[in-house]
Design goal:
Elements lengths: L13 H4 L6 H22 L6 H19 L2 H5 L4 H21 L2 H8 L2 H11 L2 H6 L2 H16 L3 H7 L1 H23 L10 H24 L8 H4 L7 H61 L12 E3 L2 E3 L26
Antiparallel strand pairs: 1-2
Helix pairs in contact: 2-3, 2-6, 3-5, 5-11, 5-14, 9-11, 9-12, 10-11, 12-14
């Protein structure tokens, strides 16, 4: 994968100057973005709402993050500088998967796919393989062990020498990140999802891993890659100093993402508690209204005009019952595959 001519020093301008759009990956990213936007537009055409934030998270943060780490100058220098590779590692394994999860693509698919395909997707989600891979402890093990296997065995050198293996490592970063973060912060229906205290604990347990890995890389007297970076003979970089920088990026970047993720989990936890409190209030209001009607009926007093058994009075207007009162933030909890929405089949 090395080139005969010495590349120029890495800089901010190289992010754009060295961008490569002649591979299959940009096409795949554009197709994924197009399918997502098409599904969102289909929802809107039938009168349903889809939060703009989810679209921005998936397209800009998720797919855009993958593009920034692979087809920009970062992708061009990821086999030239270990520090650049570590930035790529962090984006592909931690940043992009979080935004992909927050985009809720599975929920979007379940709301827009034809009925036949919805049932197939649900079958995949509830398959034994999916249950094992998305089980938090399994996904956690894959997420934290692979980097040690990659960087401290000959696998990393092989990935630098062979393009196909290099791309496979990129795919593994993305997939392992999705498996880890989707059950933690994702909005999609997944089997075996842990309650928020368990998710927060798992996020806390993943924090020391980045510090240990980063410090190990920084303090290692052996250059990663089996002498690959030394063999490039770049006049403008010291491979040993670059490795120290790479370890610092892993350490600091991992800590930053972990702390941010804990904040996101706490915010989601508080929102869920607020939603559950409102749902309890609605059920109590309905039960109270039903009890008043029963007392009036027993006393022979005509019931006052009010909401039906399935509705709640709001500002003098009667709205549909609890099913219709489900907020959009609760959509991930609704089994859309059991409901044939208009235009979904």
């Amino acid at each position: 994968m090395g080139t005969l001519a010495e590349p120029p020093p890495f800089s901010g301008a190289a992010l754009f100057r060295e961008a490569r759009l002649d591979s299959w990956l940009p096409v795949l990213l554009v197709v994924a973005a197009g399918l997502y936007l098409f599904a969102v537009q289909r929802l809107r055409m039938r009168g349903d709402r889809w939060p703009v934030g989810r679209t921005v998270a998936f397209v800009v943060g998720g797919l855009g993050g993958i593009a920034s780490a692979t087809v920009s100058g970062i992708g061009a220098y990821d086999d030239t500088l270990l520090s650049v590779h570590m930035v790529q590692h962090m984006v592909l394994a931690m940043v992009a998967p979080i935004f992909l999860a927050l985009g809720a693509p599975v929920t979007l698919a379940l709301r827009t796919l034809p009925s036949r395909w919805r049932h197939r997707l649900v079958a995949v989600l509830h398959s034994q393989v999916a249950k094992v891979l998305t089980f938090p402890l399994v996904s956690y093990g894959i997420f934290v062990t692979f980097p040690f296997l990659l960087y401290f065995t000959s696998l990393y050198r092989l990935s630098l020498e062979h393009d196909w293996l290099h791309e496979l490592v990129h795919a593994h970063f993305i997939l392992s990140g999705c498996l880890f973060f989707w059950p933690l912060v994702g909005l999609d229906p997944l089997p075996g999802r842990w309650p928020y205290p368990g998710r927060a604990l798992l996020m806390v347990l993943s924090t020391p891993f980045h510090a240990v890995l980063g410090l190990t890389v920084m303090q290692s007297r052996t250059l990663l890659g089996g002498g690959w970076y030394e063999s490039l003979h770049l006049s403008w970089v010291d491979p040993a100093a670059d490795q120290v920088l790479a370890g610092g990026i892993l350490w600091a970047g991992g800590e930053l993402v972990s702390v941010t993720m804990l904040g996101v989990l706490v915010a989601q936890w508080m929102r869920q508690a607020d939603r559950e409190a409102r749902q309890v209030d609605r059920r109590l209001d309905l039960a109270s209204a039903a009890a008043r009607r029963a007392r009036r009926a027993a006393a022979g007093t005509p019931a006052a005009a009010g909401p039906a058994a399935g509705g709640v009075s709001a500002g003098g207007a009667t709205v549909a019952g609890p099913a219709a009162a489900v907020e959009d933030d609760d959509l991930w909890q609704v089994p859309w595959w059991e409901t044939d929405s208009p235009g979904a089949s």
